[in-house]
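Q: Here's a chain of 67 amino acids. Please give me its 3D structure as tokens.
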Amino acid sequence: MPETEETPKRVKHTRPHPNACQPTIDDLMAWEADGGCEACCEEGCWVEPDGYCPHGYPSWLIVMGLI
């Protein structure tokens, strides 16, 4: 959908949400096996390993510098 004055622009965050819990190495390994990753938002959105969630937060792999 094209952005208009009625649709807000999505902000891409560069830092994790303050309430997001950093994953463990076991979490990262399980996500890799599932082919995705959680985003670093408090909702724990599921995203592509190099993706951003609808709230504008990147995957933990991006934040941790693994991608």
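Q: Can you summarize the key feature?
A: The chain is about 20% helix and 5% strand.
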